[in-house]
Description:
The structure holds 3 protein chains of 3 kinds.
Chain A: H1 2-34, H2 55-61, H3 64-97, H4 103-115, H5 118-131, H6 138-163, H7 166-174, H8 179-190, H9 192-208, H10 211-216, H11 224-229, H12 239-265, H13 270-273
Chain B: H1 6-35, E1 37-39, E2 47-49, H2 53-60, H3 62-94, H4 100-107, H5 115-126, H6 132-139, H7 153-179, H8 183-191, H9 196-225, H10 228-233, H11 245-255, H12 259-289
Antiparallel strand pairs in B: 1-2
Chain C: H1 2-24, E1 36-42, H2 45-61, E2 64-70, H3 72-84, E3 92-96, H4 100-105, H5 113-116, E4 140-141, E5 152-153, E6 156-161, E7 165-168, H6 169-174, H7 184-194, H8 212-223, H9 240-254, H10 265-273, E8 279-281, H11 286-292, E9 300-303, E10 317-322, H12 330-340, H13 343-351, H14 365-370, H15 378-382, H16 395-411, H17 416-433
Parallel strand pairs in C: 1-2, 1-3
Antiparallel strand pairs in C: 3-10, 4-5, 6-10, 7-8, 7-9
Amino acid sequence: MRAGKLLSGVFTYAAVAVIVVFFGFPLYWTVLTSIKPVELIPQNPPVFFFTPTFDYYRQIFSQSVVWRSLLNSTVVATVSTALAVGLGAPVAYALARFNFRGREQIAFFFLSTRMTPPVAVVLPFFLIARAFGLLDSRLILIIAYTTFNIGFVVWLLRGFFSEVPTEIDEAAMVDGCSRGGAFLKVVLPLAAPGIAAAGIICFIFCWNEFLFALILTSFNAKTLPVAAAGFVTDRLVLWGNLCATAVITYVPVAFFALLARKHLIRGLTMGGVK
Amino acid sequence: MIKADKKSILYFVGPALVLMLVVAIGPLLYSVFLSFHNWNLAKAHSFQFVGLANYLSFFVDPTIWHSVGRTIIYVGACMVLEVALGLGIAFLFDTNFRGESWIRAILILPMVMSEVVVGLIWRWIYNAEYGILNYFLQVLGFERLSWLTTPGLAMTSLVITDVWQWTPLVFLVCLAGLKSVPQDSIEAARLDGANWLQVQWHVTLPAIKPIIVSVVLLRLIDCFRFVDKVFIMTYGGPANDTALLGFRIYIYGFKYFEIGQTAAYSLIYVAAITVLVRILIRSFNSKAVA
Amino acid sequence: MKNSLIFAAAFAASVCAGSTAFAQDKPQDRPYDGVTIHVGTQSSQWADVFKKMAPEFTKETGIKVEFEDISFDVMYEKLKTTFIGGAPTYDLVWYDTMWTPEFSKSGWIRDLTPYLSDPKLTPANFGYPNAFYATEISGGYAKDNAWKLPAGTYGIPWIAGFNPLYYRTDLLKKAGFDKPPATMDDLLKYAKAMNDPKDGVYGYVMSAKQPRIVYDWSGYLWTYGGDFFDKNFKPIFNSPQGVKALETYIALGKLSPPGVGAYHITEEWTSFMQGHAAMAWTFQDLASVARKDSKIIDKFECAPPVSEGGPRVSLLAGITASIPTSAANPQAAYLFAVWAQSAERAKAATLQGAMSWRKSIYNDPDVQAMYPSVRNDIPAKTIETARPVPLIPEWAAVDQIIGEQLSAAFAGTKTPKAALDEAATRVASYMKDAGY
């Protein structure tokens, strides 16, 4: 028994080590490049030890466009994540719980906005935004991202809600909750890991979306991915600046993920709720 | 499943549905309208009704069929690897080994970067001459490879990058699913004398099946759609080996600016994915019955 | 040729004197004080040069300048969508010259002829067009031009792009050559002799990633006497000359570092600057970058491109500055363009890495010190005989079609002949649809 446990422990850590190397190395390499002196960056064999430089970060943060796009990305991602989850979760609940005519059609309709290749809708979107005077505003990005992400939220949370046994909301309703109350007070907390995962992923989708941000925004509402692409010149890629920007894009999401960590970890038991 | 009154359905579904109808229907209808027209600003005849010609050209264009084939390989490989790896890692992390939550926070970072930046960084990693990957291969005594220019290998390179970027999504969702499996059913199975594997197979996996299905569908849809990496890393090369359908449609739309044709191709594409997704859902559901 | 250089030098002197006077009498008259112009620029080290200059312009004229960096990879779609929608996002755009024909023919950018003849907007000594190289590719179309483009001036030449041959002096010497290669056969012979992968040095380096491969290859096509189209816009690049050019290109690719099929200019330059390649045929500004930050600072030189008996034809490209039709402040934007390309600023910008097309700077000793690529006979034998890719509005699509086939031949899945034939057939059908 003991030997078996030890073996499985060794196996676990060996597997974790492989995973960390595969997923972590490119990240590590990005961080390393963001503090590497410019003459060492293209060297082969690569240099792993050197006196770090923070010039790229200094250069980046001296540009107002980076600050502005950091703010834009934060606002756009936060607001549209909140909207997508807030609007999508009730739909997911209804689809998981209620049996009504046209249910699958509605479910599909939500998904279909996500299936369309962006290139096909971005031009109509641009023309409509122009007609309403919404070009280069955060609002247009919030609207666009919310629409794309609702479909995602609906489909993901539908799975999570159907994992919660129906008896639970029925018990809550017997105890005097309305349908909405049962959803908000009982089912939603039970599906907290799902909500957290959906929220993180929505945030990330908004955070790294490129094409719509490129086409719909310019001077005012530009987001980080588009600003980061600005470090790619036709002649030379400014690797240091690009990697430093990549690191900056990690930090808020890592922070957000750490905040949501508790919700992801909580293994709720039925007994805890009843 | 409950048969609910119309009012509560309206409350739950209404707001989101209205937003979707308002925002998504306009561009969609506009796309349908465009798909029946020939609109290319660079060409002499600028805007004219062409009926189904745009749709028909999809089916007779050999480059499109080539792309369809390449896309099936790409999406198939990505999906199998991402789902298997993501699910496997989720089970591993569900054991709550020490340091799990910190490693998890790192693991989700690959999907944080935009496809463009991911593509650039990997193009550099894959660089045959001074890339880090070939350096490691050489140190370990292997042959250096031309990752992005060898037919066949280029596709593998793209798949590896996609697996790197998006396995974390599958992992994160599956882990959340595992975390929300009611503990008492697991306890009950344990008390009945089931070992870890049996518990996972008979209790956990069936419980999170709806979640796995939805993440598979969502990944599938996005895998078809996200092609920015292709532009950055291979631009469809070598010899159209990595010219995925999404890439082709982008070329038609944004390099040729064949706006009507792009709309028609996109609608065919949406229809094809819809059929595919429906088949998948049905097969998942029928298995559940069996 | 000598004459024209002397003329340019004399001209430079007069322009320099004039522009100072121009700057001095400005403050009395600031009609656009307080206006903000929006500049959309291809992200580049050049753009940064002008960003640094802009505050000075603001001080002189009261016009504020805001910049948006757009990556080259997505510049075309970004600009085109903006133009189709008629959005007044940009007052001035700096972009690759290959798109000027399309933008001008579609009516998306302004004909600057009235601005050029307006003394309030253009100082007398600006000297357009004679004081600049490459006016045609930058949007200056003569009446009844061969390309059937609308006559007018649709852009001011902004950043130079021409292609001398780069070679490593130390490696040439080691291999026993005492002068740079003169013919295509020489090029192959030299590359073979200097190719030493075991020692980490390759004979050549190129950038053969799509869509770049079309531009990289074009010089070979022209040098062998081929061309993309004939007078009636019929594709002829699959001629024997074209096939020979592609064969040579592929042969040189085999003497280049592995994986050049995925190289854009970025990787090509890095390779050369790291000392991994003995020769490269690429843009003039590599010279200034490699003289500053590289492992080969004093180990390389530039020469005119090779010749096959005929003229030494290489690729002429660059950046042009245009004013969109939908611009909100076209005059203020124009003032900035003219200000930034005055002889004095053009030199200053060139010395900071944004090489101007203004002829006067090519004889300047400071510029020559920084750019080995403009010394001796190089401008005369490179710029003046260089050629742009076809100035047709359909180029973006044609470029895509040719690039795919070139890349297939480069990867070895098709023979050069088969690839070029296929490309020619497709281009012909595309051009027919387009009404040629």
